[in-house]
Amino acid sequence: MTDAADRQLAAQYEAFPYPQRDPREEAKRLIVGSPSHLREIDHWIFGGRRPASTPLRALVAGGGTGDGTIMLAQQMAWAGRPGSVTWLDRSGAARQVAEARAAARRLDNIRFEAGSLLELEGSGLGPFDYIDCCGVLHHLPDPLAGLKSLASVLAPGGGMGLMVYAPHGRTGVYMLQDALRLLAPAEEPPAARVDAARRLWRQVPETAWLKRNPWLTDHISGGDAGLYDLLLNPRDAAFTVPALDALVRAAGLRIACWVEPVRYDPDVYLPDPKLRARTAGLDPVQRAALAEAITGNMGIHIVYCVRAGHAVPEPPWEDPEAVPVLREMDGPTLARGLPKDGTLPCSFDGLRVSLPLPRLANAILQRVDGRRSFGAIADELAANGVSHEHFWRELPALRRSMEAMNRLLIAAPA
Asked: Where in the sequence is the signal peptide annotated (predicted)?
């Protein structure tokens, strides 16, 4: 399933493997994000109930230069989790970068496969417990065909992490794409097109909407690959909340979580009780669509999906044996930095909100270390004069804010 734009896209990623990465940087940092963070997969796909000892078979479809692949494989290695991550892409140039990054980290739990995600069915690959498809569907000739192909190799009870572009937060991008189709036609060599794009960006008037959109920086800090992907890409489709939900449903899937959930809750932005009375009558997709429309700064949508008929188990928040974990946060450090007013300040691409926290938030969070169970934390607090009943009464309020931020999650059981 190819057309002229698809052939141009394939040539683009050979000339400019994306995202632009230097394997030498692996010694300094692990690039972390969503989807496909191991703790997110454990929580949002498996409800914190799939044993850590069960091998995880993961696929990164459209793996590019390896961000998602390296992150997940490294997190599995650090945690001693069995399983493997399959990188799949048709770009040989991107594969060279991804393999060099894996070698720099001495990761032996990655399998590299050349090919298109559109050809997964009948390929012999899979089934997979988890599939990542980040930044790919919006470039395909037929996104639904791509998503159905991924679903064909999804194991029973498994799930996917998807990222697609969203229109409102990409204000200005499509205008400059139109301009560059005139200034730098697709038939020109990639280097010449990049040169034209660089020149245009330096001289574009201040009234250009992309100049006023500080949340998109690929054309500034992403090197030639970032600029090409943002402004010269031959196919770039953005999805609103309802459009993405419709795409997922058409593939026989359903959205289990929008990341971060709180961003898609319109009540966070609308304190007026009369407006909240109106939002209460909206279904979940309508509520998320309203949040997208009124905030105006969502440039991507990240979702976790499962099969339409599959119910993700409720994470065991009431189980004393369950172990809470913080995603990329240190409990004691977070607790020390909490404001005295009982709120948690958050910022989403320039939009600031404050989430309420219970009085025990500080005491609980400073004990969340990925090892202590809820029961152990309750026992420690009881030794300091806080009753078990008080702990279990306050925990749901902490969950409402911190889980909605995609920060306080439930670990996979041992």
From this structure: none
Across all residues in the chain, what is the average pLDDT? 96
Separation of alpha carbons 18 and 21, rounded Å? 8
Compute CA distances 233 → 10, 135, 241, 243, whole Å.
10, 12, 22, 21
Q: Using one digit for the tens of pLDDT, what is the confidence trace for 184-211?
A: 999 899 899 999 999 999 999 999 999 9
Model confidence at 3: pLDDT above 90 = no
Helix H or strand E encompassing 343? strand 343-348
Residue 271 CA to residue 289 CA, distance in Å, equals 18
- Classified as helix, coil or strand, 369 is coil
For residue 1, what pLDDT is reported?
60
pLDDT band at residue 128 using 50, 70 and 90 as cut-offs: very high
CB 329 within 8 A of CB 32: no
Q: What is the pTM of this model?
A: 0.97
Using CB atoms within 10 Å of the CB of residue 33, give its burial: 0 to 12 exposed, 13 to 18 middle, 19+ buried. middle
Rounded CA gap, 260 and 403, in Å? 9
* Correct CATH for 324-410 of 1.10.760, 1.10.10, 3.10.620, 3.40.50: 1.10.10
pLDDT mean over 87-109 = 98
Provide DSSP, 45-81.
ITTT-S-TTSPEEEEEET-TTSHHHHHHHHHHHHHT-
Structure tokens at 157: 């009870």
What is the Rg, in whole angstroms, of the alpha carbon atoms belonging to the chain?
A: 22
- In the numeric block, the tokens 């399933």 are attached to 1
| Edge-to-edge strand ranges of the sheet holding 110-114 | 110-114, 83-89, 56-61, 128-134, 154-165, 300-307, 253-259
Arithmetic mean of pLDDT, 156-165:
98
Q: Is the pLDDT of residue 2 over 90?
A: no
| Distance from C-alpha of 119 to C-alpha of 152, rounded to nearest angstrom | 10
* 3 state SS of 184: coil
